[in-house]
Design brief:
The chain is of the alpha+beta class. It folds into two domains: 278 residues, no CATH class; 108 residues, Lipocalin (Beta Barrel). Helix content is 49%, strand content 16%. An eight-stranded antiparallel barrel has the order 1-3-4-5-6-7-8-9. The longest helix is centred in the middle third of the chain and has 29 residues. The N and C termini lie far apart (69 Å). The mean pLDDT is 89. This is DoxX family protein. It comes from Emticicia aquatilis. Keywords: Membrane, Transmembrane, Transmembrane helix.
């Protein structure tokens, strides 16, 4: 029997807006597994719209910086503005076009399923890179030697999370559990509650530690809240008014169709296999280097001699003072510093047979594949000599490993019993 409940104008407008707002923000899921071709098409669609808004509101002819490691670029903010405008105007047009329709209960049913699975996939993805400490990694010697005041707010948060694998695991586990609960209809409300709570905390950390994922984390939280909206009255009665409540009455779509019941189970199994099992295995493999033995070349170094084009200069602004060769989680990294304020981070691969370090600029655009090769010589595990070229400059660096230090942060450990607070 068809549902003849007549929605109010406000009810329709809110639904139309949510449908368009969440739909535009989550698209092209689940086609995003195709990768770059899909994102290139999406970028071509948004480019003229975002450039138009940039010209109108910011007096910019073109927004040249595309989304990258930051999800809060000018491009992203203008895209959100465009989505809000499209969703608002689209809601009015939709209201006029569907003015004779009583409700959209079936469309609500499909939207909830779509958002459930989108949020589940995202929570599982973000959760698993914390269960395996890949997102924040582990504390490096660079961070241990760095002064607290020299850290960015985001760097402080990353260091805080990197300190404890246990806390990383717990945070990731909560996201994984929330994602798994969202996959099943009967546990959707619990999964949405947990997702909204977890993402509220993530959003607040992003907001107050200046992490450039504020937009994304905010509307992930909004998806959780939207999924809870269907149970708002029941939740209010149970948690606030302390009154009994009845089970929700879900609309039945193809309930009597065997092909639909079987298809739903097959798709659910495939979804779990792709978003959980496959990602679990992939992250497990990616985390293997964390516990792999390190070469003797790793460690903190003090630069004793720096030559550029065979010239030694104590006033060279590019002269390195300290070099930290380390592993942050599963990623090998080199950090370099000097007294002129230079703080540089590069990724590297090590060929211990040919004694070659291949580096690339971590901060460079993704399209920049420039690599710098240095030969190295390590004597008595203490002195390291690098020789190579950076662009047109020949570089020679002689450095000595710093004496080991027992940092309180890494040696204090955990104590069940504390007779007095140890807040140092």
């Amino acid at each position: 029997m068809a549902n003849t409940t007549k929605w109010s104008v406000a009810h329709k407008l809110i639904f139309y807006f949510c449908f368009l707002f969440f739909g535009l923000n989550t698209f092209p899921f689940p086609l995003d597994f195709i990768g770059e071709p899909v994102y290139n098409l999406i970028e071509k669609f948004w480019t003229p719209i975002i450039n138009l808004l940039g010209n109108v509101f910011l007096d910019l002819d073109e927004i040249t910086v595309r989304p990258n490691g930051s999800g809060d670029t000018t491009w992203n903010w203008l895209q959100e503005l465009a989505i809000l405008i499209i969703a608002s105007l689209g809601s009015i047009v939709w209201l006029i076009a569907a003015r004779n329709r009583a409700n959209h209960e079936k469309l609500v049913y499909w939207l909830r399923i779509y958002l459930r699975y989108y949020l589940a996939a995202t929570m599982l993805s973000y959760g698993l890179v914390k269960v395996f400490p890949l997102q924040f990694g582990t504390i490096t010697t660079y961070r241990l030697y760095e002064r607290l005041g020299e850290m960015s707010p985001m760097g402080l948060l990353w260091t805080f999370m990197a300190y404890s694998k246990g806390y990383q695991f717990f945070g990731g586990l909560m996201e994984v559990v929330a994602g798994l609960l969202l996959i099943f209809r009967r546990t959707t409300t619990l999964g949405a509650l947990l997702s909204a709570g977890v993402m509220l905390n993530v959003f607040m950390m992003n907001l107050f530690f200046d992490v450039p994922v504020k937009i994304f984390s905010f509307w992930l939280m909004l998806i959780g809240i939207y999924l809870l909206s269907a149970d708002a009255k029941r939740l209010w009665q149970f948690f606030v008014l302390n009154q009994p409540t009845q089970a929700t009455q879900e609309i039945k779509i193809f309930a009597d169709k065997k092909w639909f019941r079987i298809g739903r189970i097959v798709l659910k199994v495939l979804f779990i296999g792709i978003t959980f099992v496959a990602q679990f295995y992939s992250n497990w493999q990616d985390a293997a280097p964390i516990s792999a033995p390190k070469s003797a070349i790793y460690g903190p170094y003090k630069v004793e001699k720096f030559e550029r084009n065979n010239v030694v200069s104590e006033t060279d602004t590019l002269r390195l003072q300290e070099v930290f060769i380390d592993r942050r989680g599963a990623t090998d990294m080199i950090y370099v510093t000097n007294e002129e304020g230079l703080r540089k981070r590069v990724n590297f691969t090590l060929d211990s047979t040919k004694h070659i370090i291949q580096m690339n600029d971590y901060a460079a655009p993704i399209t920049d594949t420039t690599q710098y090769a240095f030969t190295y010589t390590l004597s008595d595990s203490e002195k390291l000599f690098l020789k190579g070229k950076i662009k047109n400059d020949s570089i020679k660096i002689s450095m000595k490993k710093m004496k080991p230090r027992n940092f309180l942060l890494t040696t204090r450990g955990f104590h069940w019993v504390n007779e007095v607070p140890f807040n140092k």
